[in-house]
Design brief:
The strands form 4 sheets. This protein has a 7-stranded parallel beta sheet with strand order 11-12-13-14-15-16-17. A 5-stranded mixed beta sheet has the order 2-4-7-6-5, with helices on both faces. A 3-stranded antiparallel beta sheet has the order 8-9-10. It has 5 domains: 81 residues, Orthogonal Bundle (DNA polymerase, domain 1), CATH 1.10.150.110; 64 residues, DNA polymerase, domain 1 (Orthogonal Bundle), CATH 1.10.150.20; 90 residues, Beta Polymerase, domain 2; 76 residues, DNA polymerase, thumb domain (Beta Polymerase, domain 3, 2-Layer Sandwich); 238 residues, Metal-dependent hydrolases (TIM Barrel, Alpha-Beta Barrel), CATH 3.20.20. The chain is α/β, with parallel strands linked by helices. Helix 19 links the parallel strand 13 and strand 14. The structure holds 2'-deoxyguanosine-5'-triphosphate, calcium ion (2 copies) and zinc ion.
Length: 578
C-alpha cells in the first residue's frame, strides 16, 4: 500500500473486495449487498470523502450507517481495514480474481479452492487444461471448456486495445444511446477522445434529465456480455469484443464539468483541481464548489466555460496529458492544431501493382471523391517479393497507366508516381539513383532488419535520408501495435539528418502503426522538421484511417503548417522541384 491518502475510489474498491470475500465465505446476501451498496455510494459521492469525514458527516452518505462510517474512518486514519485483513487470513486474495471469470460463482470458486487448492486464475487455468475440473461434482468437460474460454477472454481484455477498434465501438454505442428521446447530447470521453494509440476502456458521457431508460438500454445492448454496474448515474458493461464501457448520465447543467473530468487524463485533471483550489474552489466531476463554506456552486454545460472559469483558453482533448498544456493555456498561447479539413492530399498508398486492392484509377477516384487534390501512388519496390514489389520495368509500365488516369481525371486532380522503396537489410536502397530520378516522389521505409543493433539500423535510415531522391521516410520507427516494439533507432541522429536534408517524416495513420508517435512528432515539430500524414491505403476504406493520424499529430501539438499534406498541388510540386 502506498503513502498516498486513500481516495473515494480506493475505499469503494476495498468495500467491493470485502463483498467478494464475504460472498466466497457464503455469507448471507443481505450483508454482501450492504458492502456493495456502500461501495457504489462512495464511488458516486460528488465530494472528497476525507472532507465529509472531517465534518463528521459520513453517515449522511447513502447506504453508510454507523458501522460502515467507523470502517471508513479507520481506513482514512490507518490506510487499511482490519476486517478485510482478517478475511484475508481465511481466503486468499487471488480467489477474488477467480470470481471475475465468467461461469465461476462463489460456490465453484470455493469448491476449486477446497478440493484442488486453487488460489488464483493461473492455477485455475492449469487445472482446467489438465482436465482436473471436469472430475469435480457438478462439473463436466463442457463447463471446464467454458472456463478456459472465459480465462482467455479475460486475458485479452487486460491488454489495451487499438484506437480504431475502441473508437468505432464507442461511437456506435454513443449513437445508439443518443437516439433515445431522453438523451439530450453526449460525447465519447476518456483516452478515446484524447486519441491515445491504445485504449484501456471506453468512457461515454450523456446529458439527460431522465437517466433510467438510457441506462436500461445501455446494459441490454446486443454486444453486452457482463454487467459490472447498473446505477442511476453510472453503469459499466463488458462487451463481447473484450472491451469494457463506462457510461455516465448527468443533468445538462453539469455536462461541461463532467465531460472535462471523464475525458481526463488523470494527470491533467489533478492539475485542474489544484488550479481550482488556488482560486477558492473544489472541482469534482459535477461542479465547482466554493471552499469558503458558503456552499456556492458553479455549474457549466460547456467545457469551454470550465476552462474559462479556471483562467485558461480551451484545451483540445488531445493535449490533455499534463505535458505543459495548462501552463501554456494560461498564457493563451496554445497552438492552433491541425484538423482533418486541412489535409488535401495523401502521399503514400498501394494499388494492385503491388499489394493493394484497387487499380490506380480506382484509388484516384476514391481520393478525389474524398476531396483530395493530389495523391502519390507508392507501390512496394522490387526486393519486397512478398508484396509483389515492382521492378524498374514494371515501374515504367505503371507510369503509362498513371498518365492515362491523369488525362481522364482532368485538371482538378493530380496523380503522381512514387514508390515505397525498401531500405534493404544491408543498408542499400532498392533502386539505383537513375530509377529514383524518374519518379515524382520517393518514400523510403524500413520493413526488414528492424531488430538490428542501434548503430546499424540507424545508419540504414540515415543512408535513405541522405539520398537526394528520397523525399519522405515512411513509418520511421517501424513499430506495430500492440506487439512489435519500434526499431532501436538513434532518433536524435535521424531528426538531425531529416532537418539538414529537408526530408519529411511520416505520421503513418494506420492504427497498427501511428508512427511517428505523438511524442516524436512533437519533437520533430520543435526541430522544424516537416511531417506528412498518410493513410498507407491498400483499399478504399483505409482512407477512413486519416482521423487517427490527425489525432496522433494533434497529440504531438502539430499545426497545419508543419504538414505537407496541407499544401496545394502547386506548392507541393514546387517543393519537389527545389
Ligand atoms: P484508459 O481507459 O486506460 O485508456 O485511460 P482513460 O484516460 O480513459 O482512463 P479511465 O477510463 O480510467 O478514466 C477516464 C477518465 O476519468 C480519466 O482520464 C480521468 C477520469 N478519472 C477516472 N478515475 C479517476 C480518478 O480516480 N482520479 C482522477 N483524477 N480522475 C479520474
Ligand atoms: Ca477509458
Ligand atoms: Ca473508464
Ligand atoms: Zn506502405
Amino acid at each position: 500500500m502506498s503513502d498516498r491518502p486513500l481516495t473515494n475510489r480506493d475505499i469503494a474498491d476495498i468495500f467491493d473486495t470485502v463483498a467478494d470475500m464475504l460472498q466466497l465465505k457464503g455469507e448471507i446476501i443481505h450483508r454482501i449487498l450492504a458492502y456493495r451498496r456502500a461501495a457504489e455510494s462512495v464511488r458516486e459521492l460528488p465530494r472528497d470523502i476525507r472532507t465529509v469525514a472531517a465534518e463528521g458527516k459520513l453517515e449522511s452518505i447513502d447506504n453508510i450507517g454507523a458501522t460502515l462510517a467507523e470502517k471508513i474512518d479507520e481506513m482514512l486514519t490507518t490506510g487499511q481495514l482490519s476486517f478485510l485483513e482478517k478475511l484475508r487470513q481465511d481466503i486468499p486474495d487471488g480467489l477474488v480474481d477467480v470470481l471475475r471469470i465468467n461461469g465461476v460463482g462463489p460456490k465453484k470458486a470455493m469448491l476449486f479452492f477446497k478440493e484442488l487448492g486453487i488460489k488464483s486464475v493461473p492455477e485455475l487455468e492449469t487445472a482446467a487444461r489438465d482436465g482436473k475440473l471436469a472430475t469435480l461434482p457438478s462439473m463436466g468437460a463442457k463447463s471446464e471448456k467454458k472456463i478456459i474460454e472465459s480465462i482467455e477472454a479475460l486475458a485479452r481484455r487486460s491488454n489495451r486495445v487499438r484506437l480504431d477498434l475502441a473508437t468505432v465501438t464507442a461511437e456506435s454505442i454513443l449513437q445508439e444511446l443518443l437516439a433515445l428521446p431522453q438523451s439530450l447530447f453526449g460525447s465519447v470521453g476518456g483516452s478515446v477522445r484524447r486519441g491515445k494509440s491504445t485504449i484501456g476502456d471506453l468512457d461515454l458521457v450523456i446529458a439527460s434529465r431522465e437517466a433510467a431508460p438510457i441506462m436500461d438500454t445501455f446494459v441490454k445492448l446486443p454486444g453486452v456480455i457482463t454487467i459490472h454496474g447498473h446505477g442511476p448515474t453510472k453503469s459499466s458493461v463488458e462487451l463481447s469484443n473484450g472491451l469494457q464501457c463506462d457510461l455516465r448520465v448527468i443533468p445538462p447543467e453539469n455536462y461541461g464539468v463532467a465531460l472535462v473530468y471523464f475525458t481526463g487524463s488523470q494527470a491533467h485533471n489533478i492539475k485542474l483541481r489544484a488550479l481550482a483550489q488556488e482560486q477558492g474552489w473544489t472541482l469534482n466531476e459535477w461542479a465547482f464548489t466554493a471552499t469558503d463554506g458558503s456552499g456556492k456552486q458553479l455549474l457549466y454545460e460547456r467545457e469551454e466555460d470550465v476552462y474559462k472559469q479556471l483562467g485558461l483558453s480551451y484545451i483540445p482533448p488531445e493535449l490533455r496529458e499534463d505535458r505543459g498544456e495548462i501552463e501554456i493555456a494560461r498564457e493563451g498561447k496554445l497552438p492552433h492544431l491541425i484538423e482533418i479539413g486541412d489535409i488535401h492530399s495523401d502521399l503514400h498508398m498501394h494499388t494492385t501493382w503491388s499489394d493493394g486492392k484497387l487499380s490506380v484509377m480506382e484509388m484516384a477516384q476514391v481520393a478525389k471523391a474524398r476531396g483530395f487534390k493530389h495523391i502519390v501512388i507508392t507501390d512496394h519496390s522490387q526486393s519486397l517479393g512478398v508484396a509483389n514489389g515492382l521492378t524498374p520495368e514494371r515501374l515504367r509500365a505503371q507510369r503509362e497507366e498513371i498518365n492515362q488516369a491523369n488525362a481522364a481525371l482532368g485538371p482538378d486532380f493530380r496523380v503522381l508516381q512514387g514508390t515505397e522503396m525498401e531500405i534493404r537489410a544491408d543498408g542499400n536502397l532498392d533502386y539505383p539513383d537513375e530509377v529514383l530520378a524518374e519518379l515524382d516522389v520517393v518514400v523510403a521505409s524500413l520493413h526488414v532488419g528492424l531488430r538490428q543493433e542501434r548503430a546499424q539500423v540507424t545508419q540504414r535510415l540515415l543512408n535513405a535520408i541522405r539520398n537526394p531522391h528520397v523525399d519522405i521516410i515512411g513509418h520511421p520507427r517501424g513499430r506495430l501495435i500492440p506487439d512489435r516494439e519500434p526499431a532501436d533507432l538513434d532518433m536524435d541522429a535521424v531528426f538531425a539528418a531529416a532537418k539538414e536534408t529537408d526530408t519529411v517524416l511520416e505520421i503513418n495513420a494506420n492504427p497498427h502503426r501511428l508512427d511517428l508517435d505523438d511524442v516524436h512528432a512533437q519533437r520533430a515539430v520543435e526541430l522544424g522538421i516537416k511531417l506528412a500524414i498518410d493513410c498507407d491505403a491498400h483499399s478504399a476504406g483505409d482512407f477512413d484511417l486519416l482521423r487517427y493520424g490527425v489525432a496522433t499529430a494533434r497529440r504531438g501539438w502539430v499545426r497545419a503548417d508543419n504538414v505537407i499534406n496541407t499544401w496545394s498541388t502547386e506548392q507541393f510540386l514546387r517543393w519537389l522541384e527545389s
